[in-house]
Design a protein that fits this description.
The structure holds two protein chains of two kinds.
Chain A (H helix, E strand, L loop, with lengths): L1 E9 L4 H11 L6 E6 L5 E9 L2 H13 L3 E6 L5 E12 L4 H11 L3 E5 L3 E8 L1 H11 L4 E6 L3 E4 L8
Antiparallel strand pairs in A: 1-3, 1-4, 2-3, 5-7, 5-8, 5-9, 6-7
Chain B lengths: L1 E4 H11 L4 E5 L5 H8 L5 E4 L3 H15 L3 E5 L3 H4 L2 H9 L4 E7 L15 H5 L5 E4 L6 H13 L5 E7 L8 E4 L18 H12 L4 E5 L1 H5 L3 H11 L3 E3 L14 E4 L6 H9 L2 E5 L5 H4 L10 E6 L13 E4 L2 H14 L6 H18 L12 H11 L5 E4 L3 H9 L8 E2 L10 H11 L5 E6 L10 H7 L4 E6 L4 H10 L15 H7 L3 E5 L5 H10 L5 E6 L9 E2 L8 E2 L7
Parallel strand pairs in B: 2-3, 2-4, 4-5, 5-7, 6-7, 9-10, 9-12, 10-11, 12-13, 13-14, 15-16, 15-17, 17-18, 18-20, 19-20
Antiparallel strand pairs in B: 1-8, 21-22
Helix pairs in contact in B: 1-2, 1-7, 3-5, 3-17, 8-13, 10-13, 11-14, 15-16, 15-21
The chains are: A alpha+beta, B alpha/beta.
Chain lengths: 163, 572
């Protein structure tokens, strides 16, 4: 099953490589990984999406918790949560395609953030399925370049992941 | 406050940590540190001949004493040579701090001379590693390193020290912290009482219980509590290879150790048990055999300080995360207070069954009138040392024979590389023990393959007068490899023979030691006695043993606990 694990990590050199190293060393999957500092400058927030049986996921969270630099973690998929991914796509946009692409972008509530006479650059945020669906809708033939940020997530409601 | 250079702070920190010996080897990036060592006499340095041996020495000391060992090496090759030793300690959860020199911080990343990313290289085989970024951090980093290495589930910690952090003429205020602040590192201090109560209820209603105790009992200094609980309950107990000595092997409740080369009765009792109390053990593949066939009728209580050890390979019904000593103490209290007592009738029937299993195999082996059997060498050593010696081993058949036939009644005396299986471990580990316990008998039981992996340390033994006794069970082949080839590869002995063995007697003598050869069975006892009587000399005893012997019992690959070879021809 796909899981989103969110980690508060000491903001120190080498901490990220310890997390990444753990995944390859123990043969766990990483589908996406994002990391950035938080409002508390001593902490980074890392979000990793992974797949595995319940047993594997349990081991992943236990092994992550064993890392000295991991301060706290939560499996967001255990409760209601919001997940978002940001995508930037360069699309071939000439002639009649231009209007069609514009309509599709509107339907997906994206924005065209850069324009040339032949290319639209589109920004789109949402869960990963929505981003996949957009690519499918515009057709892969017209796609020149795709950049995806990987998943960020947060729990719904009062629950917070903090110290 | 005192002003000290980074190098002096490092050595002062070791003094304040109470470190007596540092095992190591100097080199460019560590020279400021070595100079600081030279200018004091509290911390003593033992110069090995290869850095791997320094780590095994520190490891041997740690296993015998329960305290962290300390290693000091230079950058690059000095540091990378420690990796096998660090991985050995990591797999067996041995507390240790490895201090590595590093090129100056201004050169890091430039492929400087003797530069290696030791933080990166060591990452998968350490509990943690730390890098010094400012000399002032040194006391706190040292305190953190020892704290992390020796608390919770112990393990090795590497400290990487760039050369410019130890520059002699840059001085800083020194004070050694009493405590360390680590907000993200809080090992469990006690088990969950509700879980412990649940476990006790299960124990008291079990009909075919089995206690399965691992190295965690030794590391967690809980042998007393384990013995008390086991005797109070009257249950059979098996120790893992790493847990040997955690419960007296000569006691009638002990079934010996379990797993691939464990006793028949231990493996049978595990397979047929209805309740397993696992204590500081990790259901290693060399114990469980095929996990899907593991102990089909048993519910499992698992006590461990490391939550990640629980349900990693075998699902636990009642997990208890906590230090084994305090959890067992709490269990003992609950058993005492409980009105329910273990089911005497069920236990009697269970013991009858176990005693039948015991009688069936009984660790028998065929003896011969002329050829020396490796098993009888170990049995004789046990007798001649009253079972009191510290025994280190390398890896292979000799290791298994030593574990099977030297009955340990005390913890911390059996010292082997159980998890990583490191050949070359035995001699330096024995040296580490002998240095710290000079009045005790220290045996290194080895084979002619393993001993050659760190044979250069015979020189270190000369320099520091370390009169260990090396018992080389010489079968002129890599015995365990050959055994597997006999059993699985139709006796095609690919590369398992060494065609050019040295004359070990001359070799020992060349280093200034005593060499002794035993090739006749009638000389075995008298010559071993003679060797052991030379208290102040290292004696290298080369014993020519049966070249065709196999280790039994041996579990059948991918089978259940109960599937074993009992000899070359009997399979159950």
């Amino acid at each position: 099953m796909r899981r989103i694990i969110s980690v508060l990590l000491e903001n120190e050199p080498g901490a990220l490589s310890r997390v990444v190293g753990l995944f390859s060393q123990r043969n766990y999957n990483i589908e996406t990984l994002t990391v950035a500092p938080t409002e508390d400058e001593t902490l980074s927030r890392l979000t990793v999406t992974t797949t595995g049986s319940d047993k594997v996921i349990e081991q992943i969270t236990k092994q992550l918790n064993k890392l000295i630099e991991v301060v706290k973690l939560v499996d967001l998929t255990e409760g209601a949560h919001i997940e978002r991914e940001l995508m930037l796509v360069k699309l071939k946009a000439t002639g009649a395609q231009r209007a069609e692409i514009k309509r599709t972008v509107d339907i997906f509530r994206g924005q065209i953030v850069d324009v040339t006479s032949t290319v639209y650059t589109v920004q789109l945020a949402g869960n990963s399925d929505k981003l996949d669906a957009f690519i499918q809708a515009v057709g892969t033939a017209g796609v020149l370049e795709v950049v995806r940020s990987g998943v960020s997530g947060i729990a719904r409601g009062e629950k917070v992941l903090s110290l | 406050m005192e002003l000290l250079s980074g190098a002096d702070m490092l050595i002062r920190s070791l003094q304040d940590e109470g470190i007596e010996y540092v095992y190591g080897y100097p080199g460019g990036a560590a020279l400021h540190i070595y100079d600081a060592l030279f200018r004091q006499d509290k911390v003593k340095h033992i110069l090995v001949r290869h850095e791997q041996a320094a780590v095994h020495m520190a490891d041997g000391y740690a296993r015998a004493s329960g305290k962290p060992g300390t290693v000091l090496v230079t950058s690059g090759p000095g540091a990378t040579n420690t990796i096998t030793g660090i991985a050995t300690a990591f797999m067996d959860s041995i507390p240790m701090v490895v201090l590595c020199g590093q090129v100056a911080s201004t050169l890091i990343g430039e492929d400087a001379f003797q530069e290696t990313d030791m933080i990166g290289v060591s990452r998968p085989v350490v509990k943690h590693n730390l890098s010094v970024r400012h000399p002032e951090e040194i006391p706190e980093i040292v305190r953190k390193a020892y704290h992390i290495a020796s608390t919770g589930r112990p393990g090795p910690v590497v400290v990487d020290i760039p050369k410019d952090m130890t520059t002699p003429n840059e001085r800083y205020e020194y004070s050694y912290p009493k405590k360390v602040k680590l907000r993200s590192y809080n090992p469990a201090v006690r088990g969950h009482t509700g879980q412990i109560r649940k476990a006790v209820d299960m124990l008291l209603s079990a009909r075919r219980p089995m206690i399965y105790a691992g190295g965690g009992v030794i590391l967690g200094k809980a042998t007393e509590q384990l013995t008390e609980l086991t005797r109070m309950l009257g249950f059979p107990i098996t120790n893992t290879l790493m847990g040997i000595g955690g419960y007296p092997a000569s006691d009638k409740q002990s079934l010996g150790w379990l797993g691939m080369h464990g006793t028949y009765e231990s493996n049978m009792a595990m397979h047929h048990a209805d309740l397993i109390l696992a204590i500081g053990a990790r259901f290693d593949d060399r114990v469980t055999n095929a996990t899907e066939k593991f102990c089909p009728g048993a519910r499992i209580i698992h006590i461990d300080i490391d939550p990640a050890s629980i349900s990693k390979t075998v699902e636990a019904d009642v997990p208890i995360v906590g230090p084994v000593d305090s959890v067992l103490r709490e269990m003992i209290g609950m058993v005492k207070e409980s009105e329910q007592k273990p089911d005497a009738g069920a236990l009697e029937a269970w013991w009858k069954q176990i005693n039948d299993w015991r009688a069936f195999h009984g660790m028998r082996y065929e003896t011969s009138d002329d050829v020396i059997k490796p098993q009888e060498v170990i049995e004789m050593l046990h007798r001649l040392t009253n079972g009191e010696a510290y025994v280190t081993t390398d890896v292979g058949q000799h290791q298994m024979f030593a574990a099977q036939y030297y009955k340990f009644d005390k913890p911390n005396r059996w010292i082997n590389s159980g998890g990583l299986g490191t050949m070359g471990f035995g001699l330096p580990a024995a040296m580490g023990v002998k240095l710290n316990y000079p009045d005790d008998e220290v045996l290194c039981i080895t084979g002619e393959g393993s001993i050659q992996m760190n044979i250069q340390e015979l020189s270190t033994c000369t320099q520091y007068n370390l009169p260990v006794k090396i018992i080389n069970l010489n079968n002129q082949a890599l015995g365990m490899v050959k055994q597997w080839q006999d059993m699985n590869y139709e006796s095609r002995h690919a590369e398992s023979y060494m065609g050019s063995l040295p004359d070990f007697i001359k070799l020992a003598e060349a280093y200034g030691h005593v060499g002794m050869r035993i090739d006749r069975k009638e000389d075995l006892e008298s010559k071993l006695k003679e060797a052991l009587a030379m208290k102040d000399r290292l004696v290298f005893v080369d014993v020519q043993v049966d070249r065709f012997e196999h280790v039994y019992p041996m579990q059948v690959a991918r089978g259940a606990m109960k599937d074993m070879w009992l000899s070359k021809t009997e399979r159950v």
